[in-house]
Write a structure and sequence with these properties.
CATH superfamily of chain A: Winged helix-like DNA-binding domain superfamily/Winged helix DNA-binding domain
Low-confidence stretches of chain A: 1-5
CATH architecture of chain A: Orthogonal Bundle
Strand content of chain A: 25-35%
Radius of gyration of chain A: 16 Å
Largest interface: A-B, 36 and 36 residues
Largest sheet of chain A: 3 strands, antiparallel
CATH topology of chain A: Arc Repressor Mutant, subunit A
Shape of chain A: globular
CATH class of chain A: Mainly Alpha
Oligomer: homodimer
Helix content of chain A: 25-40%
Distance between the termini of chain A: 31 Å
Number of strands of chain A: 6
DNA sequence: AAAATAACGCAATTTTGTTGCGTTTATTTC
DNA sequence: GAAATAAACGCAACAAAATTGCGTTATTTT
């Protein structure tokens, strides 16, 4: 994925293309994901104004997921976590995101590992696969040092 | 993994070898995992006597994980889920479980996919990997039909 | 068997996520 | 561009999931 995060991205336009209402918060939310790629609900809360209600955050994330902007990343911390979709992989609510994700067990940040792909599993007898995730956990550079 | 689930497994002995106290409930819990391989907290509750307190369940699962008997399986439903460790893969709290897991989005059952392995990722610059999980989600045979 | 240690149960609390409904904001239609 | 429609928002209340402290009971060690 090539993200040109040079401050010239028209987030409102991206929302419009995906059929998402262009409210102040949702533009802000999309910007957050373009900056950090992967966020938990808590991180979104911390990075949003205190004036934004948590219900609004949950509903916006749900909407973004349905419209193909972000996808859930599995985790063992029983925390909902989302990552920005690759526009060439995800269309609408059909999410195909075969790159790995690394989750730091200390700071809880999630990192997209573009170079590490999930194996290409097509069909397994008796299982109807909707999503496939390669999840790595441990400590990121910063947390390993401390 | 070869599990000889023929009713002749000495669960108490396994607990003793791992340094886990041999209480009635913990013997029962280990048996559950040998029977089903993968369980959420809720499933453990349902399969245990109503007399067992949920706190006991949480603490026993935590203990089993620390002693290398079971490991957490990531999921997008933010539900804590555990799988039996392969004795040849996991030693103590060092969990290496490179087989995939399939989680049914309807019945929430988890299935170990012994034949589907995670790619063998050793080191990634800046990341210190503790565990690696290959997570598949969708519908199992039973839930797909309904 | 007694002492030490670990597990257990209970109650209370915290954290996380959800639902309903009236109000505000954005989008569509004219 | 204003009115009508639809969607998003905030609030309060609720529900579910997980955690903590502490006194009691069971297990392990000596």
């Amino acid at each position: 994925m090539k993200i040109q995060n040079d401050g010239n991205i028209d987030f409102a336009l991206i929302l419009a293309k995906k059929g998402v209402s262009k409210t102040k918060f949702r533009i802000h939310l999309l910007e957050l994901f373009y900056n950090k790629r992967s966020l938990s609900v808590k991180e979104v809360m911390n990075k949003s104004s205190n004036l934004i209600n948590k219900v609004t955050i949950y509903r916006a994330l749900e909407c973004f997921e349905e419209k193909g902007l972000i996808h859930k990343v599995p985790s063992i911390n029983n925390i909902i976590r989302y990552s920005l979709c690759n526009s060439d992989e995800c269309i609408g609510s059909l999410h195909k995101h075969n790159h790995g994700h690394f989750i730091c067990n200390n700071c809880n940040q999630t990192f997209c590992l573009e170079n590490y792909k999930s194996p290409d599993i097509k069909d397994i007898e008796g299982f109807y696969i909707n999503s496939l995730n390669l999840i790595l956990e441990g400590y990121c550079k910063d947390c390993h040092l401390n």
